[in-house]
Amino acid sequence: MSEVPIIDPEAIENLRSLNPGDNDEFLREIVGIFLEDTPKRLIELEECLARQDVRSFTRAAHSIKGSSANVGATRLHRAAERLEHKSNAEGLSDVVTQISEVRARFAEAKDELKRIAGL
After folding, report:
1. Mind giving me the DSSP string for 58-105?
2. Would you list the domain boundaries of the chain?
3. How far apart are the first and last CA of the chain?
4. Cα–Cα distance measured from residue 55 to residue 63, given in angstroms and rounded to the nearest whole number
């Protein structure tokens, strides 16, 4: 079984195909939105954990999962999906390690997306 890529090249090509010939302007716009929004969702996870707000926490994890799928951030998507399922099934006990994993996967996705999009 091959290692899961940081960024799925097929997802990037799908984004490029939505606005062909624009010299990756659309891709940069989508990646820019993702890079601006995801840190806000990460802060939201921490705030929801502090308040023990399971519903909002799960929604923030779901948001990260969806946006990461949109830009092909495969590892981040999987980490956010695990976090969403855990919080939904078990509440917020023992999620700190998984939040750290999501943060780490975002950091690597951010670097790779910036490289791909030329940001």
Report:
1. HHHHHHHHHHHHHTT-HHHHHHHHHHHHHHHHHTTTT-HHHHHHHHHH
2. 9-117
3. 32
4. 12
12-16: long-range pairs with CB below 8 Å, 24+:
12/71, 12/72, 12/116, 14/72, 15/71, 15/72
Q: How many C-beta neighbours within 10 Å does residue 100 have? A: 11
Beta-carbon neighbour count of residue 118 at 10 Å? 10
Which amino acid, 18?
A: L
* Distance, CA of 72 to chain centre: 9
Please report where in the chains the tokens 């099934």 appear, as a residue: 89
Instruction: State in words which class domain 9-117 has.
Output: mainly alpha
pLDDT in tens, 60-94: 999 999 999 999 999 999 999 999 999 999 999 99
Nearest residue to 57 (alpha-carbon basis) of 65, 68, 48: 48
pTM across the whole model: 0.92
